């Protein structure tokens, strides 16, 4: 089993979600929760951007124990020195240096030549290595770049001392096949035989961030950059909960594992949603309200007979309550009977004790009529149904 490092960037790329601004105390709370979750690296911020960010990274470096604490820096000397200063007190720190790899970004944003990008990258990685022996290097927008230039850039970064090379699909453009093939090329042409980790950093503009990150793992990546609930720039980043549970649930396929304490996932996901003000969509994999809810009669009947009929993982494994039966017009008799039993009504009773079969049949018909009118049926609706049918229950 390969051990995949989970690099959480909720506090840096996640905070770049439009409309999100976490205050100091909220960031510290999330950083401690990430440590309890068992992430390997916390990207705690981008210290050059503001004094507030600098102070927050410094405090996380001082207080949070367990994960390596990383900070982001462009290739400029001032960025790297500021990141190094903020990380001073961390027992294990990483400087994450980034530039751009695609022609469109190099020409129009950096206004440099590719040669200048190479030179500044080498200089920056060497400088960062003077402060820490853990230096990560990223070239933004790799999937729209010239792959030969990408290879040249990363080779130069490794020779300058980068210990982790991160391959960002900054605008979520790549397909799993293309991204996986590039990672394999990086592995075979520049990493093979060296003590350098390959990292994946995917954005979700076309909904492929998780698939792309997993394709990278299949082709040699040993670090995944991700955020809780997949928050981040535009459509967001790879979701931590999705990649972690995919690797766990399909370990037969990936032959890999992470160090995440999966039972903490739901709690941290809710905390991030509450503090960022970004709701989790109900149908979101792993952490959405509906992720472990069964609605249709056929599914409910199956799950009541044997969980694995419609479940590939236990809700408890990610820190949630056991699977929920949603009572509505699709629900079947088995789920109806179970819901009444859970509410304390004795089903399968005799005429003078509890709900007998005949009473249950009448109530089930009334339940279906109500569900047709009302949609979802809650516990109070069921209680009202039974109370109103007291006559037939004792008939
Ligand atoms: O998406 C991106 O390219 C980034 C880099 C800073 C790694 O977030
Ligand atoms: Zn990003």
UniProtKB/TrEMBL annotation:
GO terms for cellular component: cytoplasm. One of its GO terms (molecular function) is 2-isopropylmalate synthase activity. It catalyses: 3-methyl-2-oxobutanoate + acetyl-CoA + H2O = (2S)-2-isopropylmalate + CoA + H(+). The keyword Acetylation does not apply. One of its GO terms (biological process) is L-leucine biosynthetic process. Pathway: Amino-acid biosynthesis; L-leucine biosynthesis; L-leucine from 3-methyl-2-oxobutanoate: step 1/4. Residues 4-266 form the Pyruvate carboxyltransferase domain. Keywords: Amino-acid biosynthesis, Branched-chain amino acid biosynthesis, Cytoplasm, Leucine biosynthesis, Manganese, Metal-binding, Transferase. Its EC number is 2.3.3.13. It comes from the Bacteria. Its cofactor is Mn(2+). Mn(2+) binds at residues 13, 201, 203, 237. Belongs to the alpha-IPM synthase/homocitrate synthase family. LeuA type 1 subfamily. Homodimer. Catalyzes the condensation of the acetyl group of acetyl-CoA with 3-methyl-2-oxobutanoate (2-ketoisovalerate) to form 3-carboxy-3-hydroxy-4-methylpentanoate (2-isopropylmalate). This is 2-isopropylmalate synthase. It comes from Deinococcus peraridilitoris (strain DSM 19664 / LMG 22246 / CIP 109416 / KR-200). The chain holds residues 1 to 395 of 520 of the full protein.
